[in-house]
Specification:
alpha+beta; two-stranded parallel ribbon; two-stranded antiparallel sheet; 4 helices
Length: 122
């Protein structure tokens, strides 16, 4: 399986020119799914798909990450991976305080649970 990666410069979610070129030529590249770094970028991608007659999920499956609710009701419920951001913040503060107080080393990796949320985009 070939993986294509495009970078975005807008954390709020903007489909950049490189991304749009891949998406508009997705059949040529064999692209059937897009995994977005965050839900805002996934919602921007869904808007791009609507404007360019790309049917989601028939032509392209779209998955987000973070489970953040959009500011307006989306046309489709997004398939996403929801992270428990309060748990992430609590763990980060705990590790920081322990490190500052010299109680323990900060681990190279901390694994926290996430939840898969099935939506209409896959």
């Amino acid at each position: 399986m070939k993986t294509y990666s495009a970078k975005t410069s807008d954390w709020r979610g903007k489909v950049e020119e490189e991304e749009s070129n891949y998406l508009l030529q997705r059949s040529r590249f064999g692209i059937t799914a897009a995994v977005c770094w965050g839900d805002p970028s996934a919602h921007a991608l869904l808007k791009f798909c609507r404007l360019n007659q790309i049917r989601v999920p028939n032509d392209l499956a779209v998955v987000g990450f973070n489970g953040i609710e959009p500011p307006v009701e989306p046309a489709q419920s997004l398939t996403t991976v929801r992270a428990g951001w309060s748990t992430v913040a609590q763990q980060a503060v705990h590790l920081l305080v322990n490190r500052l107080e010299g109680h323990e080393e900060v681990p190279d990796l901390t694994v926290l649970p996430v939840e898969f949320v099935s939506g209409e985009t896959t």
